[in-house]
Amino acid sequence: MQRIVLMRRLAGMLRDEAVVGGIGNTNFDLFAAGHRPQNFYMLGSMGLAFPIALGVALAQPQRRVIGIEGDGSLLMNLGCLATIGMVAPPNLTLIVMDNASYQITGGQPSASAATADFVAVARGAGIARSDWSQDPDDFIRLVDAALQSSGPALIGARIDEAPAAGQPARDPAQIRDRFMQAMGARKDFGAP
């Protein structure tokens, strides 16, 4: 599947959900597909999109939260699935964009190119609603089902290695402030 196609279809169904995009092409394509204040774009923090999404889900239980991570980044912090399975926030959906490589650093194969199966790991960690999407329509069906259900869900998408379609501004303070304001966590950021 094409990552940008999945991101565009996902962006088209979003309303007030908070979305945390992992580093690299996952957040670049999230930005290109539909920039909005409720998107938090990770910069230089490999493996932390799911833990941050978990924190947002716990802090804002009335809001649906989506975490999007690449396979290499998830491998960097695979233990977060056990914590998410144990805590079981009812409003958290996780999406793994798996191209079986560390694309940003040169395309070296990741463990999912050989033996790692993120859906099986997530199920083993206690995230019972974990599935591989079969095509773009199935991907949207799984996302919609996750957003309509209670309990964490993980959706795996085997994707291409196309370059990203765009990039957000690399301004961490601006990304943070815009996201916090969209979450209602901070109203006034002062001057400029």
Describe this structure in words.
The protein has 192 residues and is of the alpha/beta class. It has a single domain (3-182), classed as Thiamin diphosphate (ThDP)-binding fold, Pyr/PP domains (Rossmann fold). It contains eight helices and eight strands. The chain has helices spanning 3-13, 25-34, 49-59, 71-76, 80-87, 118-124, 136-148, 172-182, and strands spanning 18-21, 39-41, 65-70, 92-98, 101-102, 108-109, 129-132, 153-158. The strands form two sheets. Strands 2-1-3-4-8-7 form a six-stranded parallel β-sheet, sandwiched between helices. Strands 5-6 form a two-stranded antiparallel sheet. A hairpin with a 5-residue loop joins strand 5 (101-102) and strand 6 (108-109). Helix 1 runs parallel beside helix 7. 41% of the residues are buried.
Strand order of the largest sheet: 2-1-3-4-8-7
Identify the overall geometry: globular
State the order of secondary-structure elements, H for helix, E for strand. HEHEHEHHEEEHEHEH
Number of helices: 8
Average pLDDT: 91
Summed up, the domain count is 1
CATH topology title: Rossmann fold
Q: Calculate the terminal CA-CA distance, rounded to whole Å.
A: 42 Å
Reading off the top of the CATH hierarchy, the class is best stated as Alpha Beta
Low-confidence stretches: none
Percentage of residues in helical conformation: 40-55%
